[in-house]
C-alpha cells in the first residue's frame, strides 16, 4: 500500500506527538504507512502525489484571517506551500482531508470568505449533515447528527461555488465541505478523543481560546458527552483511498 501523509503545524511536541498518535489510532495505519511532516520546523518537501494514497492535514495555531503583518515568517511560508500543493491536489482531485487548520487552507485556496463571524469555544457541538453529506461515502455509517470536538477563532462564512456543504453546527454554518469528489475539509476534529482534547486544552491555555480562569469550565464542557462518531471519517478515508 502507498503511504498517507500527515501535514502538521504544531510547534509544541506533546500535542504534536499526540495528534500523530491519534491519527495512527483512528486511521488504523502504522507509522510507516502514515508519514508525518512537521511544517513548523522546516519547508514542505516536494510531493510526488503518485507515491501516496492520500493527504491529511492536522490542526494548528495559524489563522488564515489574521492580517498579513501579524503572521510570522513561518506562517507565510506554510501558507505559500499549501497554495502550491493544493493547486496540484485540486487539479487532480487527489484524496485530501484537512481538519481544523485544513479547512482554512482549502478554504483560502478556493476563495472562501474566512473571518471571525462564527467562532466556537473549545467544546462539543452537534454537527448535522446536509443532504449531500448524508449521501457522501466519507460519512458512511455516521448518523445525520453527531457530536464532535471543536475549538476555533475563525471559520468559513461563505463557501465558494466550487464547494459542496456537507455539515453544519448551530453556531458555525460550515463544519465540513468537499471540492470535487475527493478533496475534503472539516472544521471539527475527527481525530480527537477526550484524552487528546484534554492535552490540547492544557497546552493552549494561554492562546486565547478561553479566559485564564475558565480552564476547569472548558475541561467540563468537553466531558459532558461521549464523542465517538467523527473518527469513523478517518477510517472511511483510508478504506476508500488505500492503493
TrEMBL record:
Record keywords: Glutamine amidotransferase
Keyword Protein biosynthesis assigned: no
Stretches assigned to the Glutamine amidotransferase domain: 50-192
Matching Gene3D superfamilies: 3.40.50.880
Keyword Nucleotide-binding: no
Pfam families according to UniProt: GATase
Cross-referenced InterPro entries: ChyE-like, Class_I_gatase-like, GATASE
Name the UniProt record assigns to this protein: Glutamine amidotransferase
Organism: Microbacterium pumilum
Amino acid at each position: 500500500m502507498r503511504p498517507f501523509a500527515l501535514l502538521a503545524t504544531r510547534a509544541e511536541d506533546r500535542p504534536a506527538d499526540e495528534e500523530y498518535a491519534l491519527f495512527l489510532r483512528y486511521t488504523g495505519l502504522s507509522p510507516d504507512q502514515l508519514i508525518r511532516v512537521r511544517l513548523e520546523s522546516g519547508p514542505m518537501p516536494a510531493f510526488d502525489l503518485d507515491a501516496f494514497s492520500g493527504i491529511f492535514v492536522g490542526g494548528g495555531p495559524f489563522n488564515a484571517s489574521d492580517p498579513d503583518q501579524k503572521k510570522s515568517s513561518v506562517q507565510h511560508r506554510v501558507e505559500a506551500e499549501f497554495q502550491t500543493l493544493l493547486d496540484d491536489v485540486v487539479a487532480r482531485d487527489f484524496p485530501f482531508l484537512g481538519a481544523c487548520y485544513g479547512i482554512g487552507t482549502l478554504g483560502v485556496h478556493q476563495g472562501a470568505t474566512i473571518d471571525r463571524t462564527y467562532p466556537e469555544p473549545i467544546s462539543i457541538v452537534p454537527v448535522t449533515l446536509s443532504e449531500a453529506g448524508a449521501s457522501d461515502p466519507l460519512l458512511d455509517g455516521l448518523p445525520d447528527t453527531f457530536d464532535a470536538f471543536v475549538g476555533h477563532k475563525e471559520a468559513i462564512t461563505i463557501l465558494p461555488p466550487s464547494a459542496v456543504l456537507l455539515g453544519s453546527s448551530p453556531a458555525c454554518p460550515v463544519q465540513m465541505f468537499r471540492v470535487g469528489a475527493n478533496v475534503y475539509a472539516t472544521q471539527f476534529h475527527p481525530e480527537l478523543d477526550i484524552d487528546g482534547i484534554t492535552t490540547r486544552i492544557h497546552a493552549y491555555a494561554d492562546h486565547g481560546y478561553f479566559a485564564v480562569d475558565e480552564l476547569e469550565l472548558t475541561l467540563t464542557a468537553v466531558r459532558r458527552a461521549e464523542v465517538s462518531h467523527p473518527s469513523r471519517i478517518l477510517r472511511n478515508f483510508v478504506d476508500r483511498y488505500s492503493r
